[in-house]
Structure formats: structure tokens, C-alpha cells
Amino acid sequence: MKNEDARRAATLADVAERAGVSAKTVSRVVNEHPSVRDTTRERVKAVIAETGFQLNLAARSLAASQSYLIGTFVADTASLYYSELARGAARACRALGYHLVTEEFDQRNPVAADHYERTLRQTRCDGMILPPPLCDDLALLDALERDGVRYVRISPMLDPDRSVAVFAHDADGVSQLARHLWEKGHRRFGVINGPSNFASSATRRDALIAAVCALGGSASDVTASKMLWDGTFPATGYRTAAQLLKDAPDISAIFTFNDELALGVLGYAHENGLRVPKDLAVAGFDDSDASSFAWPSLTTVSQPIVDMAVRAVQALVRDSPHARRRIECPVRLVIRASTGGE
Amino acid sequence: MKNEDARRAATLADVAERAGVSAKTVSRVVNEHPSVRDTTRERVKAVIAETGFQLNLAARSLAASQSYLIGTFVADTASLYYSELARGAARACRALGYHLVTEEFDQRNPVAADHYERTLRQTRCDGMILPPPLCDDLALLDALERDGVRYVRISPMLDPDRSVAVFAHDADGVSQLARHLWEKGHRRFGVINGPSNFASSATRRDALIAAVCALGGSASDVTASKMLWDGTFPATGYRTAAQLLKDAPDISAIFTFNDELALGVLGYAHENGLRVPKDLAVAGFDDSDASSFAWPSLTTVSQPIVDMAVRAVQALVRDSPHARRRIECPVRLVIRASTGGE
DNA sequence: TTGAAAGCGCTAACAA
DNA sequence: TTGTTAGCGCTTTCAA
Question: Phi/psi at A261 (nearest 5 deg)?
Fold first, then answer.
């Protein structure tokens, strides 16, 4: 697949000749090196504008041994999460002169390190963004470190100080939610946990318990249930809600690990004559499309995924290679009809 | 951002030396050129495995004047569509030895051609995938052709024969849907159109009318309304449904351009005491998450977006530069509760 | 502030 | 079947 009839693109040398300077000077102008006389710079810039010259990324990469590429993964499962992540990452890359390379990650065949070595490695990415659950794939981290490829992890669970890591301030959002529910008069709470390989699953449950205690309740007011997986999140939410309400019938509010689980809880309520939010308040997490489309619309906590991706790319490009910091991004409680918000 | 402490990666020359052959021979092995003696090939492959050698993409691009990069855009608006597209494209790229570069596309500042020239151009992508609405940006197409960059368009509206174009067979899905509704006894239909800059908006409406006529009805049995935009799709669906049912109170089934509009219709039905599907059947399009999470779950037409992206990449890599064909991908009617499916 | 020369790691074109 | 040579279009390093 060669694009035969491409008009040969202008090169540095072409621009140099037309501007009557050396190629190196053009390079200095393009890279905004300060030591170029203003008049020279203007002349070169004029020729660049005229010719539409753009650096050849491959040549630059080769010479500078920097690829100006940031890599990331999309999971092989439909999710708004990854589309937001890509959006934020692409936006930040563009602002910093980088490009975003996306690779598909196969959840069922989780030898991510192998996948990396056989494909992404040849791009010599300058950095990688690792969303969950890849951020906790230790073999992948080892492989990246071996190649000297830096990485930033999004919401990692394991060994959070091993690298720069970006977190949403989940606990804060959950505690806002607890306060909201408490003010609406709720005293007994149900929690449907998420997958155990997501750090945030335990974090969110614990944050709810802590918040309820801080408001004057006790840990025994919160009944947590792990997911009874049933194929999809909504189906799982449905099934787990049934169990939860059987185990603790006095629960008046259910908080779920994500919005999709909450949709299942809503479905359960509908089918069993529980009015939402009168008989049962329901709250999710993520502020995905699902939450605003739900009936009634779902109270949820909005994760700033786009921002998190932007921060990740910035850290990749600007931090020193051995930086190991925690970047915490604020979340936002979105109150909707399912908890009696207006 | 240089990864200073990267162990210097093995090069072709390193492998050549260790295997006792010329660099060119190693190149032939890596590129699966047939004219290498089996014994030589094995020896070289062994050294490659041993050293973990991987071609340097930048060097290869420069020498071969091919980037092995495919470019695409994510819109700056959350949508499963783009995440599925990226997924399919990444999968196909990987299979063919290419990499996927993603750029954010700003809907509000739609000078896509300019955007391309200032950023993606430096990657010298071998090909581009253009989803709607970019596929109909004539200035962008001109710019790509000027640079000799080939492109494949997904569901273009304008000038469909200008390039290879991939389509979902919308009309077929709509006609299956019409038959299903007809069999359920519906005779008067409402249609909520999509944005007028999407070709499929008119296609789907017309397909419904044609299908109804084919079933023995007439064009006047279908009342179409353009969207009364209200900030989001669900809100728009709500508002448009209200208008539609006022204009044509005898409608018993509403078909919308996408699932999100249908969610608004469902909300309208709930708030106005219309039982779904008893009083009003509702059907959407796309089979997005929204449709299975809706209450009741939504009958919809499933677009094979992942497949479409795969086909697009394959066409990019394998077709001749001047190919101009139409690739039609089959859709699938998904019958759920909102039309009385079981 | 500017330029000249060398070379990044690969492939194309040719020769053996 | 294999090897040699000469670049691809930049940046680096060093010199002017």
C-alpha cells in the first residue's frame, strides 16, 4: 500500500534552499530554538507557510531517537470509558506535538506484555497510558521498564507508587453522595460492589461506610454485596439487588459500583412494584450515558475521564523519567431523579 | 521526553552479525520475502527470538516511504460509535502490520482540512478512515487527495462514488423492522429523523416508507418529523415525540434515527401514561448500550460498526490506490420488549 | 547566529 | 539466494 502519486512533500532541504539558509537553520526554526536571528526566522517561516512544509515524523524520530508517539489501549468491549480516554489523550497529545497510537487489548487473552512486545514495541512509543485493568498487569509494567518506556497508570490498584498514577477522587464523590442520601432521610444502605480486580470497587464501598459513620450512622447500616455476575452489568445488578433486598429488607437506598449495575437495580424495582425514589433510592457511578437515559434518570458520580487522560499525557511528556507521583482529579456528584433530586 | 535509560534496542545489523548474514537478509526474513533459504531463515529467526528484535518503525517508514500508520478521528463528543470504530480499526491494523493513530476532531470548529494539515500530515499516514460527519467534508477530501493519502469513508452522504465507502445496509434493517411492527398489528407509524447532515437520516425514513408501502400500507401511514433539537438526543426525542403524537394521534409505533432519541420517547410515554409497547411501540437504531439498558428494553437495529472499521482498514491496505467501491455490511434487527418482542 | 558533516536503522536497486 | 551501496529526511555534534 504505497501512495504512488503523492506529490513529493516539501523537505527541510527544500525549504532551506528557497529561504537561502542551511537545513539546520530551518530545523532550528521549526523546533523553536531561540538562537535564530529574527529576520532569518521570518524568512524561513514565510517559505514554510508558502510550501505547506511539515516535518516528516519518521525522519525526525529516527534522527532524534524519540518517536513523538504515545500509546494506549482500547479494550475489546464497548465502553464509553475508552472513548473518553482516547479523546482526552488525543487532545493533550495534539497540544504537545505528540500523536496517539491505539492498540486493541483482548480481555480474554490477557498476555498484554506479549501483545506489547509483538506490536506496539516497534512503534518505540515515548510513553504509554495504561487504563484499568492493564495498569495492574505487572508483567506488562516489567516489559515496559525493560525497554525504558515510561508509562502512566490510570486508577491502579496494585503498587500505586510504582509510577505516576492518575486517580479520580472516588472517596470524595461517594461521601458527597452519602451526605445527599442522608439528608433525604435514608439510614440503611445497600452497596453492590464491582469486579474485584478494580481497586475502586473496594475504595467506593469503604468510602460509603466511612461517610455513613461520619454522619452518625454505623458500619452495620451498610450492607455490601459482591456482584452475582450474570453475563452483563445490568443483569448482574438485577440479580444482586434481589439478593441484597432479601438479605436486608430495610435498605432504602442502593449504591452501585457503576451506572450499568444501577440500571439493573432500576429494572428490578420496576418489576417488583418498588417506586424509585420513593420506596428505593438508587445511585450509580461514572455518569455514563446510561445514567441520564435511565428511567428515572440516575444519580451518579461523574468521573473526569477526559481530564484524567489529559493529565496522564502531560505527566508523560513533562515529568522526569523517574517521577512517581499521584495525580488526583476531582469528581462531581450528579443528583438526578433516582434519589429524589430535582 | 527522551527515555534516556532505554537499553539500546537490537537493530537489524545486530541480528545480522549474530546470525552471520547480511542486514539485507535479515530484512528479507522479517518482511517474509520468499527468496531466503530455509536454513538461513531459521537461523535468523532464532537470533530474532533470542534478542527480541523488532523492526524500528521510524527507520522502516523513512526508508520505504510508507508509514504503516492508519489515521482516524474521534469526535469530541462521547459516543460508543467511535469506541467501536477504534476497536475494529485497531484490530484490523494489528492483523495487517499497521498501527492506528487517533486524532481528536472538534465538531464546533469544523475546519478539519486545516486540522489535518497542521497535525496528522506530519505522520504521513498511509491511509485515513473517515467516519461521519468527516466523510462528507469535501475540503478534507481535497486535502488528502492533494497529499496522495488514500482514505475510506464510513457511511458518506455526499458523492459516495468518490472513494471506497463502507455502508451499513440500513434500509434492509429498517425493512425488517417494518415487517415486525406490521405483524404486531401496527398500521400508523411515526418517524423521528436524525441530524440532516447524516445521510442515513433520510435513508432510514425513506426505507420505512418504502417498506410500509410494500406491506400494503401507503406513504400517508408514516408521519415523519425532523428532530426538535433540545440539547441532548434523549431530550430531543422527548420533545419531538410530544409534537409527533399531537400532529398524528393515531400513531401506534415510533421509529427513531438512533437509540438515544428513542430513550426520550420512552420517557415521554412513561410520563404521559402510555404503556410501552401496549399503547405505543418504540424502536431505535444502533443497538447501543442504551438500548439494552432502557426500560423496557429497546428494539433496535444493530449496526456492525466494528466490522465496518475492519473492512475499511482492509480496503485501505489491500485495494489499489484508485479503487472506488461500495462495501455493504449487513445489519441485524434486535427485537426487544419495547415492541412486544420477548 | 549559522553551517558542514555524520549518521539514526532501515529498504531499494542493483550486482554477484 | 545473498550481499553491497546509497540513500530516506531529519537531528546531533562540532566547528566557524
Answer: -60, -40
